[in-house]
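Ticket #4471: structure output looks truncated?

Reporter: J.K.
Steps to reproduce: submitted the chain below (151 residues) through the standard prediction queue, then opened the result file.
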Amino acid sequence: MKPASDVDFMQRALLLAQRAAQEGEVPVGALLVLDNEVIGEGWNQPISRHDPTAHAEIVALRAGALALQNYRLGAATLYATLEPCVMCMGAVLNARISRVVFGAWDAKAGACGSVVDLPREPRLAQQLDVFGGVCSEEAAGLLRRFFASRR
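Returned output as attached by the reporter:
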């Protein structure tokens, strides 16, 4: 069996984003992958959990850290359907994640180049690889449809 690709993992993250939408949350999904295996997953849940930190990425990071019994997740890749915000990128940097792959760009709150660029901030101790735009049309379409239905 061939290893899963970034697109394969992003497709799975998109299913989690759809779950968020079904629950009335902004449709963002995230996976944490280590050695081609999902060790954590999450979808946006700040409304249902009454928790402003319950973004999909944070939920996935918490699940992965629990699975490994370690808050250092250095060899893992985080997949998110939307460009992570400052809070989520702060958590990624603290967890020492080595790679982030995301779908849609976030012109209002993105922290991987859209508004700020934390992964490339030279004053921070850690630098990491970031790849944006994977399945971006699907991710952006899901967000557009969600917000259009709210108007």
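Triage note (M.O.): checked the attachment and the full token line is present. Strands lie at 29-34, 37-43, 77-82, 99-104, 129-131.
Status: closed, working as intended.
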